[in-house]
Amino acid sequence: MKNSIEKRFWSKVKTGRLDDCWLWKGAKTSNGYGSIHVERHAVRAHRLAFELTFGAIPVGSFVCHSCDVRLCCNPLHIFLGSAKDNTRDMVAKGRSLRGRMMEKRRGERNPRAKLNQIQVEKMRARFAKGGITKTELARRYGISESQVRGIINQKNWKVIPAIWWPGRALALARLRKRLHQVFPGVK
Ligand SMILES: [Zn+2]
What we know:
Layout: H1 2-11, E1 13-14, E2 23-24, E3 35-38, E4 41-44, H2 45-54, E5 62-65, E6 78-81, H3 83-92, H4 97-106, H5 111-114, H6 117-129, H7 134-141, H8 145-152, H9 168-182
Antiparallel strand pairs: 1-2, 3-4, 5-6
The protein binds zinc ion (ZN).
């Protein structure tokens, strides 16, 4: 039963590399999320992507996108957060009016509003490789040096654990294996 849901689900997702956003090709909700019917219930596609990959979503948890792409079903771009995370995330990304006002007042934009998680991960990986200064990274990404420091030290990104949570390697391996089973085309 679950296997057939998985097959049906992943056949409606344009999968790609693990870094890419995997866009939903099926039905959409009026506010731009993917939607699929499971046992006659309409379920949001990104929530199902999370459940099929990592297991049940605890009651009261919000399922958020680190990439800010509502149609994205890449399980690695989806993380669990509290209502507070969800609001904080929205504010940080400037989607809410209050967020936009706060951003205007602050003068300096929140780095989270400028960089997506993939860029952050790439920046960290690049820095870890060595041979590049934080000043140079700041110049390349168009943010301040203190923001680069915060990102490298992971201070500014604590509310978005989707890329750097402790079990990431395990989850990645599990995700690859499962996707190969239900959807052999995935690289
Ligand atoms: Zn994405």
